[in-house]
Write the structure tokens for this entry.
Amino acid sequence: METNIWRKRVNGAVRAISRQLCMLVVAIVIIMVFLAVSGYSPFTVLKGLGRAFSQDLSGTIRWSTPMILAGIAICIPFKAQVFNLGVDGQIYLGAIAATWVALALPENSPPAALILVFLAAAIAGAVFALIPAVLNVYCSTDIIVTTLLLNFVGQFLTEFMASEVMRDPEKLTQVNASKTLPQNLWLPKLSAFGNSSANVGIYIAVAVALLAAFLFFKTTHGYEIKVVGSNANFARYGGIRSSRVILKVMALSGAVSGIIGAIEVTATQHRLIASFNPGIGFDGIVVSLLANNNPLGVLISGFFFGGLSNGGNVMERVTDVPHIVTQIVMAIIILTISANITLKHLKRKKEAGSK
């Protein structure tokens, strides 16, 4: 019985991804037309992007890790119809906390001390996410606006911490960065790819996605989240407090975002660098929408966008196409997916009005 239930969940995720893949085909056609009109060879560009999956899988895994986690961070509150646009700011706070704890620990700390580093990052991200949640619940502020504005607070705070408070005084470079973390607190790399950027953070991302799926599909908390998202009035009559659910999903979303910051610091940068985040949180919105807000589907869509992001770097090296073209490609995909979602919303609204 359990096997059949999970098979249905997986099949649902596959169907959601299949529908969105059809929209991706439409987006790719639009992209090829755009590139041809712009004077670039569409097939050369697509070949450059394809190298990200065939010849630079380690780079794709590196970028898939934050994409998957960002997708989950967006997916969790969205199930309750709560829009957390402050994932980037929460990533910054997680990175600050992870760096602070890592540098405060003794240099000969065992690798198990990484648990404290990640725990601090998750708590920092959760607390930062609770600020707009509390304002929304108790002061009726717009959570979209407050989360969006707090991104700038997180970014500027990171720049201040990296350039002033935690700046390495022994480094004479112009880069605003903290001291390098002790090597025993670096997140291990994937041995199968040698000395590459792929790290065990991908295992953390997969584990978080599976835990999110378990939360939504197998717990009463997940049921409450989905009920509030589908019908807040019905949830209230059923004894479910919407305010408590909002606080809960925002805390969970912030914790996942904080983990992204910890991975970036311990696995990739090995120190806190000002403005290290290239907008992972907003990419997570597309990852979640592409997966139809299904945590299992986020694993697939996150890997796809990780390859797309890595493909931009590869494409810039092997073709004469600038990296900005990748951003345009992602924008076209976003618009295509958004159009699909808007059409479905209008269709449901029309059907509801005809009844």
Q: What stands out?
A: The radius of gyration is 21 Å.
